[in-house]
Amino acid sequence: MIFFDLDDTILNTAKTNLLIFERAQMDLHIDMDADELRGRIRTALRSRMIRHMDFAYNETIGIDPLDYLLMEETYEEERLELFKNGVYDDVKDILGETTKEEFFAAFLKRRFDYTEAIDGMLELIKDLKAAGHKLGVITDGISEIQHRKAQTLGLDTLMDHVFASGDFGYGKPDTKFFFGAMKMAGVRPGESTMIGNNIDSDVFGALASGMKAIYFGAKPKNYEVLYAPDAKALREVLKKALC
Predict the structure, then answer these.
(1) What is the residue-averaged pLDDT of the chain?
(2) Is the per-residue pLDDT at 74 higher than 80?
(3) Same-domain pairing of 170 and 104
(4) Which residues form the domain of 72?
């Protein structure tokens, strides 16, 4: 079975997050440098997550604090309210007449914007599925957010399974996550391959779990692992790895 990481392996998360901030800024009519605005909000999100949320848990399952602005489900309601109030207080000086409700509504509106895939990855996944391979996702993050990303990209119809660390309570590179995902998928480590852009979380976590692993990125320094810098190269690496 072939497992993929989601963020910055299938989904172009970096580009998508830039678009989310850009579109929220347009909706809120904030006239300032986009990089400066994003930096101010990102700083507030990170510092308030550390202060108000369960930081150890967030780090364990790999939460991006931006995700808290894109959630519909209730999650640690009292802490989340403190977090949001704090974020707004930290940035309200640059928001003009924007109310707290308007600020958070502008981001929540963007919760379905995860449509930018890494070039060639969806085509590769479709070809692998057509060839009869079992496919899955092993991703870190809040369950609601990660499953929505997968659904928005159409992965719910392409993947046999989508596993988010938020479903398990621990994330990559913890081998419990990999073993749990493989058990639920009904496959053994020796017949499983993990592909991801994080050398520690994806590659070494998978190798420690007895899986094959392919690093999605340029040839890493100091390590001798299978790697592919783009989807085209990944096709060729997979042909050899799956022989």
Answers:
(1) 94
(2) no
(3) no
(4) 14-114
Assign residue 188 the CATH number of its domain: 3.40.50.1000
pLDDT digits (tens, 9 = 90+) for 165-175: 999 999 999 99
Are 123 and 202 within one domain? yes
Q: Which two tokens stand for residue 155?
A: 């992965």
**Domain final residue, candidates 99, 114, 129:** 114
Domain boundary among 84, 114, 144: 114
Q: What does pTM read for this prediction? A: 0.93
Question: Phi and psi (nearest 5°) for 149?
Answer: -55, -45
